[in-house]
Amino acid sequence: MLISVINTSKHPLPEYQTAHAAGMDVRANLTEPVTLKPLQRALVPTGLFLEIPVGYEMQVRPRSGLAYKHGIGLVNSPGTIDADYRGELKVLLVNLSDQEFVVQDGERIAQLVVARHETVAWQPVEVLSDTARGAGGYGSTGVQ
Ligand SMILES: O=c1ccn([C@H]2C[C@H](O)[C@@H](COP(=O)(O)OP(=O)(O)OP(=O)(O)O)O2)c(=O)[nH]1
């Protein structure tokens, strides 16, 4: 699919690293590095402005390498980019490690997955259909 994009960053557009990857790695666009102390968060700019087709959303997801090696995640994982959003795409990083982490300009900080979504209209009713599960949840079938 095609997504219209304005790239005000000094970096290449997000790209798939392998032929069948689901996520495109997106880069930080910084004038100076951002230091994240343990448990600190930061809204990191990308310099990208998108027009996602109606009926689709973009999910901003963590990169497992950054998570595993440095404890870097997303506060709002996954972030949701709406089709009608015209502002700058930003990434809400959090440092979940016990050591400082420095985000460098151009660093691949997250990945972007585009997905179709439905738009719901509610149908209020008095009764829902019976199922074997009923109201069971939260481990009702066992936890192993
Ligand atoms: O990680 C994110 C999450 C959101 N956004 C942008 C795009 C999205 O369309 C908009 C609103 O996001 P969301 O709906 O998650 O925010 P909200 O807290 O519900 O705020 P709002 O009242 O503005 O919808 O902010 C980002 O750039 N990065």
UniProtKB/TrEMBL annotation:
Q: What is its EC number?
A: 3.6.1.23
Residues where substrate binds: 63-65, 76, 80-82
**Gene3D superfamilies noted in UniProt:** 2.70.40.10
**Which reaction(s) are listed as its catalytic activity?**
dUTP + H2O = dUMP + diphosphate + H(+)
Q: Name one GO molecular function term.
A: dUTP diphosphatase activity
Keywords from UniProt, A to Z, are: Hydrolase, Magnesium, Metal-binding, Nucleotide metabolism
Reported cofactor(s): Mg(2+)
Output the CDD domains linked to this UniProt entry: trimeric_dUTPase
Membrane-spanning residues = none
The family assignment reads: Belongs to the dUTPase family.
| Role according to the record | This enzyme is involved in nucleotide metabolism: it produces dUMP, the immediate precursor of thymidine nucleotides and it decreases the intracellular concentration of dUTP so that uracil cannot be incorporated into DNA.
Q: Which NCBIfam families match?
A: dut (TIGR00576), PRK00601.1 (NF001862)
Which named protein is this? Deoxyuridine 5'-triphosphate nucleotidohydrolase
Naturally occurring in which organism (per UniProt): Hymenobacter sublimis
